């Protein structure tokens, strides 16, 4: 066998109280896809960032083709042929798609002055990831799925020998994810070595040659994919049994929480919907179908051009998120960094941000009460948090998501809009989120659950509303719906079936 191409030996990395990597050994060689798995906070992103020169390890050694190397900064990694797509995208909203791709690229950067040349340069890479978008369009105007594909196209443009993909499909639909998996297989064929970080077992077993499991910063196992299984991998990751088949089993209540009549916005056309108390209505649709637009409209983030609604029996037409919160609506956004979290501030501050008005007595915030509420809510989500005073930016991706969920649960909303709540959340935590949804439903909360994972929608919803280009193309009973039905409604291929009673 040729020398393994990138080798990590005894890599240790500590952040204050957290031992993120504990003498980890790992390698990836040319022509293989090596999946890296583990629960939220296991150390996957930290290891990827060490290899990409973003973080310096406290101790241990990196070898490239058998020889020790120092990778002191990202530019050095790029020069060595190592590309990375970060879990939390590092793109600039103020720049165009092509400019984002060219930034830091050894040859393309000088094309900056010539828009047309820059666009021509970027186009083939964008095509490869399946994007037809104009390269000159500002990144800030794109969906998070598009941004994720742009980040991948940027890595491709480096023609890296090694590619580190940290949850590259977390914001993608299954269709786009499938295309990416094919691309990964092509790159392997062409001789690239790929580190693939994901929580999606299906993806691992489709593309990976080897599977490494980390737990709490330690290396647990490395196996050939053909010698292991999904169940074994999960067991190694979590060290406990996980029920991945739980379904929602309580019936919705009789009273209606939300009605929406003929709601239109810039991106939505004539939406009609009803959600009962305790009912989970899944919202399916391709990227750009209006899934997020609906959440944003209901949460007062996007002006309504027409339509009426009631929430908990009161007329409802929020003109701002503050009004929405007051009326009992909560919204967990898809883009947690852009819209959800204040990264530099503490976990405590983030989690209590939506209930501060309730915690105030005069000019003072009742700290002890804040601490207790936040701590209890975070415990329910089983978030792994070093301290409530830690900045949110120091948490792993999945734990950031749990802080955001806790923030909205603390408002005890009558209506909760969850926009892809398990994005980037590990398999154990996913089961936790499912349990939380079930408990909220049993407690009478009305829930709209947008997700790009159809099995998730089918299991957790009572009914599923399918959107296509801003319109409702069908509402299905989840118990009898199939993925194919949802897909054909989502792509606008079928005539809508007769509406079913809520
Ligand atoms: N900049 C930082 N400062 C402090 N602690 C950090 C920092 N980055 C990571 N950590 C901690 O190191 C541990 C490993 O984090 P890492 O992001 O590598 O996890 P992960 O396996 O990628 O998880 P996820 O699946 O949630 O993305 C976590 O406990 C995290 O809180
Ligand atoms: Mg991570």
Task: Please tell me about this protein's structure.
It contains 18 helices and 22 strands. The protein starts with 5 loop residues before the first strand and ends in a 12-residue tail after the last helix. The chain has three domains: 233 residues, 3-Layer(aba) Sandwich (Rossmann fold); 173 residues, Rossmann fold; 59 residues, no CATH class. It has 502 residues and is α/β, with parallel strands linked by helices. Helices cover 34% and strands 24% of the residues. The mean pLDDT is 90. The strands form five sheets. Strands 6-7-8-3-9-10 form a six-stranded mixed beta sheet, sandwiched between helices.
- Please, how many helices? 18
The CATH class name of the largest domain reads: Alpha Beta
* Ligands present: adenosine-5'-triphosphate, magnesium ion
Number of separate strands:
22
Q: Assign the CATH topology of the largest domain.
A: Rossmann fold
The CATH architecture name of the largest domain reads 3-Layer(aba) Sandwich
What number of structural domains do the residues give? 3
For the record, give the distance between the C-alpha atoms at the N and C termini, rounded to a whole number. 61 Å
DSSP strand (E) fraction?
15-25%
| Strand-pairing-aware structural class | alpha/beta
Low-pLDDT windows of residues = none
User: Can you give the mean pLDDT?
Assistant: 90
Report strand order across the widest sheet.
6-7-8-3-9-10
Give the full name of the CATH homologous superfamily of the largest domain.
P-loop containing nucleotide triphosphate hydrolases
Principal-axes geometry comes out as: globular
Helix content range: 25-40%
Using only C-alpha atoms, the radius of gyration works out to 23 Å
Describe the sheet with the most strands: 6 strands, mixed
């Amino acid at each position: 066998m040729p020398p393994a191409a990138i080798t990590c030996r005894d890599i240790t990395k500590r952040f204050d109280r957290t031992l993120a990597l504990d003498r980890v050994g790992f390698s990836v060689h040319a022509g293989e896809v090596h999946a890296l798995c583990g629960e939220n906070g296991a150390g996957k992103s930290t290891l990827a960032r060490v290899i990409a020169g973003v973080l310096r390890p406290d101790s241990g050694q990196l070898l490239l083709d058998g020889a020790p190397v120092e990778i002191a900064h990202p530019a050095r990694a790029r020069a060595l042929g190592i590309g990375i797509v970060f879990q939390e995208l590092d793109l600039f909203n103020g720049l165009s798609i092509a400019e984002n791709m060219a930034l830091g690229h050894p040859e393309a950067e000088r094309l900056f002055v010539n828009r047309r040349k820059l666009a021509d340069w970027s186009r083939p890479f964008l095509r490869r990831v399946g994007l037809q978008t104009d390269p000159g369009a500002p990144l800030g105007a794109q969906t998070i799925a598009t941004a994720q594909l742009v980040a991948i196209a940027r890595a491709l443009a480096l023609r890296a020998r090694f590619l580190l993909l940290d949850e590259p499909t977390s914001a993608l639909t299954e269709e786009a994810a499938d295309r990416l998996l094919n691309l990964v297989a092509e790159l392997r064929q062409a001789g690239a070595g790929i580190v693939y970080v994901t929580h999606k077992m299906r993806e691992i077993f489709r593309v990976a040659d080897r599977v490494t499991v980390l737990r709490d910063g330690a290396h647990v196992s490395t196996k050939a994919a053909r010698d292991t299984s999904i169940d074994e991998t999960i067991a190694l990751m979590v060290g406990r049994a996980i029920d991945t088949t739980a379904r929602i089993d309580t019936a919705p209540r009789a009273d209606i929480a939300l009605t929406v009549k003929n709601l239109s916005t810039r991106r939505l056309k004539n939406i009609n919907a009803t959600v009962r108390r305790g009912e989970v209505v899944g919202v399916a649709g391709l990227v750009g179908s209006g899934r997020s637009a609906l959440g944003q409209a209901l949460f007062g983030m996007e002006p309504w051009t027409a339509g009426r609604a009631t929430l908990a029996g009161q007329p409802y037409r929020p003109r701002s998120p503050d009004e929405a919160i007051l009326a009992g609506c909560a919204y967990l956004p898809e883009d947690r960094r852009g819209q959800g979290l204040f990264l530099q501030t503490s976990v405590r501050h983030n989690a209590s941000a939506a209930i501060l008005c309730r915690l105030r007595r005069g000019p003072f915030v009742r700290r002890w009460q804040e601490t207790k509420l936040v701590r209890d809510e975070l415990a329910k989500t089983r978030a792994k948090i070093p301290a409530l005073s830690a900045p949110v930016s120091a948490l792993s991706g999945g734990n950031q998501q749990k802080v955001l969920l806790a923030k909205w649960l603390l408002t005890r909303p009558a209506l909760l809009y969850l926009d892809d709540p398990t994005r980037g959340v590990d398999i154990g935590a996913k089961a936790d989120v499912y349990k939380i949804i079930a408990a909220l439903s049993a407690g009478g909360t009305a829930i709209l659950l947008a997700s790009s994972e159809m099995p998730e929608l089918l299991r957790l919803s009572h009914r599923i509303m399918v959107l296509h280009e801003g319109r409702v193309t069908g509402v299905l009973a989840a118990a009898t719906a199939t993925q194919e039905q949802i897909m054909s409604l989502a792509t606008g291929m079928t005539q809508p079936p007769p509406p079913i009673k809520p």
